Every structure is written in structure tokens, then in C-alpha cells.
Amino acid sequence: MSHNVSPERITALSPRQAAALPYVASEPNITRGAQAAQITRRTLTRWMNEPAFRAELERIRNNIADFAFSQLEGLALKGAVRIEQLMDSDNPNVAHRASKTALSLSLSVRDQRETRRRMDTLENAITLIRQQR
After folding, report:
1. Which of 17, 18, 101, 119 has the fewest beta carbons under 10 Å from its own?
2. Please, what's the b/e burial string for 10-26 (b: 16 or more CB within 10 A of its CB; e: otherwise)?
3. What is the DSSP string of 77-103?
4. Cα–Cα distance between 69 and 13 in angstroms, integer?
5. Residue 39 DSSP SS3
6. Are 86 and 98 in contact (CB under 8 A)?
7. What is the torsion angle, in degrees rounded to the nearest 10, for the CA atoms of residue 113, residue 118, residue 120 and residue 124?
8. How far apart are CA 56 and CA 89, in angstroms?
9. What pLDDT score does 2 carry?
10. pLDDT (0 to 100) of residue 12
11. How far apart are CA 80 and CA 65, in angstroms?
12. In this predicted model, what pLDDT tens digit does every residue of 46-95 receive, in sequence order?
């Protein structure tokens, strides 16, 4: 399992830490991460207190999340096409449920876009305020 551990960052970590990172990153909690990496929970807890280890773990997890979101975005179009097909079903129950799903998803996307727009506005305002200081 390789998650692009950068050579510069590896030098700040021991070989055991670098080898454990992909396993720890792929698990939902410290206990399971330690088991997957074949280290003790206590060792992993100690490593988690080291800034270099924690930063690299977070970077790897962010890369994993970015990949997963990218995959989901690709599936969104496929799902939308399928919902559209189901809306034309001869079965009124299927068509009704597909229509409700389409409406619900479109409202959710609209709300998320509005939230994103507001967050961008706030981030821009914060940046301007910091620049004025």
C-alpha cells in the first residue's frame, strides 16, 4: 500500500514510522491503525504526538479523501442519469421515488453551493482584514 510519502518528509521520520503511515492512514482509529501497522497502540499514540508524524499522516489522509471525493464526483453523473431513467419508469412508485430523490438531491446541491459561496466570501474577507493589519 503506497500513499506517496515524500522523501523530504521521510527524513524527519524513522523507517518504522514511515513504513507504518500507510497502514495507520487507512484505518479509522488508533487501535486499528496500530494493529494494521503491527505496532503497539502505545507506540502509535507516542508517534501521534510528534509533529512530523502527525503532519505526514494528515497529508496522506487528505490525499486519500481527495481521491475518494474524486471517485464520487465521477459517479454523480452516472447516478443522475440513472435517476432520470427511473423517473420515466412505467411503475408509478418507482417514478415517484426517483422524482423525490432528484428533487431532494438538487436542493441539497443548491444548499451546498450557497454554503460554499458564503464560506468563500468569509475567507476573502478574512484575507483582506489580515492584509490591512
Report:
1. 119
2. beebeeebbebbbbbbb
3. HHHHHHHHHHHT-SSHHHHHHHHHHHH
4. 28
5. coil
6. yes
7. 160
8. 49
9. 46
10. 87
11. 22
12. 999 999 999 999 999 999 999 999 999 889 899 999 999 999 999 999 99
C-alpha cell at 131: 492584509
The whole-angstrom separation of Cα 33 and Cα 69 is 22
Handedness of CA 89, 95, 99, 102 (dihedral sign): negative
Which amino acid is it at 23? Y
Kindly state the DSSP code that residue 38 receives in the 8-state scheme.
Answer: T
Per-residue cell: 97: 421515488
In which band, very low, low, confident or very high, does the pLDDT at 125 lie, cut at 50, 70 and 90?
very high
Place of cell 497502514: 23
**DSSP element (H, E) containing 8:** helix 7-10
Query: How many CA atoms does the CB half-sphere of 55 hold within 13 Å?
Result: 9
Query: How does residue 4 score in pLDDT terms, banded at 50, 70 and 90?
Result: low
Residue 44 near residue 27 (C-beta atoms within 8 A): no
Task: List the grid coordinates of 117.
Answer: 459561496
